[in-house]
Amino acid sequence: MALMITDECINCDVCEPECPNQAISLGPEIYVIYPARCTECVGHFDEPQCVQVCPVACIPVNPAHIESRETLWQKYQRLTAAKVP
């Protein structure tokens, strides 16, 4: 289940540096999460770090990108394998 940032985002800049997969970036108006890179921190942390630090609780599960924990683990493995020289 990739996460998403809703329009309640206040652009506080705390979520982007917390993402271990670099899935968060500043969009035209608010921050956005790229589903292809979001693993909900599976493989890195027990809980999504962006959700933990968000002061306005605007990062729910993206209903358009429902994924199992196993799928998120496989995505994590693909993303980290791509970083190995």
UniProtKB/TrEMBL annotation:
Gene3D superfamilies: 3.30.70.20. One of its GO terms (molecular function) is 4 iron, 4 sulfur cluster binding. It holds the Pfam family Fer4_7. NCBIfam families: di_4Fe-4S_YfhL. One of its GO terms (cellular component) is cytoplasm. Residues 1-29 form the 4Fe-4S ferredoxin-type domain. InterPro entries: 4Fe4S_Fe-S-bd (IPR017896), 4Fe4S_Fe_S_CS (IPR017900), PSI_iron-sulfur_center (IPR050157), YfhL-like (IPR047927). Keywords: 4Fe-4S, Electron transport, Iron, Iron-sulfur, Metal-binding, Repeat, Transport. This is Ferredoxin.
